Amino acid sequence: MPLRCRGTGVTQPDVNGGGPVNSGPGHAVNGGPAGTRAVVLGASVAGLLAARVLADHVDEVIIVEGDDVTGSAHGRHRGGAAQGRHLHALMERGRQILEELFPGLTAELAAGGVPAAETLVGTRWYFDGARVAPASTGLTSVLASRPVLEAALRARTLARPGARLLPGVRAVGLAPAGTTRVAGVRIRPLAGDAPARVLAADLVVDATGRGTRGPEWLEELGLARPRADSVDVDLAYASRTYRRRPGELGGDFGVIISTLPGRRGGGAVAQEGDRWIVTLAGMLGDHPPVDPDGYDRFAASLPAGDIHRLIQGAQPLDDPVRYRFRTSRWLRYDRLRPGADGFLAIGDALCAFNPLYAQGMTVAAQQALALRDCLQSAATGVSGAAGLAGAARLDGLARRYFAAAAGPTSRAWSIATDSDLRYREIPGRRGLRTRVINAYVPRVQAATRADPVLARALLRVVNLVEPSSTLLAPAVLARTVRFGLRRIRTLPPNNENG
């Protein structure tokens, strides 16, 4: 019989005995009234956001998570978050969505000691080694570590009626209903050798990250698997934490040095607990070492000296650790004909972006809003009258959701992959649009070193608050051209004998 740990929102299922965990959808895990059930695979940021949205529309949401997350609120990293020990950035659009779903979250994090700063005012940015002009952007950088952010989202999500967490359990496959629908997930405890059992559900959401096996699971059921769009970047990080003292970095809260092929980069950001998280990065095999001396030498080679000067005077709290990311990948569930009803993917399980652009959490939040909108439209009907009820609300949801999520996913994908394809060492198709963008955007970036108006415009696009088309507005075009003309006029004459 399932057991719930009182007051924690944590459910411990009986997965060691015979028979399925629950006989089918409409059977509440704690013996409550029958209703609809959604199962979310993974207590990642994406999984928690999906569970938060679903909790408003189904009777029960069960989050299946392999890791023991009970200690991660106190700085313990979740094993399933491979990038969790490295620098993260929550873009402003992502922060806005989190604030909408969890009102007061920004203030709650600040009260817990998480630093926050206005982007470009309290932090420094460098493009091609040149500092972006400090300017008011209206953007807030919330500088929480991954464990602290996840802990806050997890506590808020599990406080929703019907939301439960199953820790120490992993998904090993899907359960079918007929030939086109998923009706649950097969789960197995990580400890012991108990056989897999079926956890029945009206909806299964894959939030298992870059290592998702969703396509393989669908194929095992005889269903179509999505094709993948991909770009190979061969990126690696090396990160280390340091004690933070007042006045370091001139009182700023962070510095970001853009990473380019042949031009190394990195970031140093203040975090809770009076710490700096310092991440060094390199692409196309130019990877930072993890021995302390090599780490320091790599930092010294960055095109701006802020990070190296910072770590020279700071006390290290641990040894450098590495993370490698080889390929950006977008699984095109939106193009499956037919798709599998009852199965969704979100976050990196849908699209894994080059983490240099810090888009992952924000795009996951946008995908969660797309899911919410699809559920709300089914609940109210097209005309605003009473819509579908109960499990009927989930019929056809996969097709609607993947189509809706493709919008924000595509916009972020274009920003990241266009930037990567700027460099000939990265294989990929470069259409006319990509070539034009990659000829123009570096000129905008160069102009931001002297023009705070352009700096504001570019950072608002980078933070996914404004669309990329903002950079093509007449005023932005004119300021970019004027900067280029001034640079030409100030260049020294060419000395062919020199």
TrEMBL record:
Protein name per the record: FAD-dependent oxidoreductase
Transmembrane segment boundaries: none
Region (Disordered): 1-30
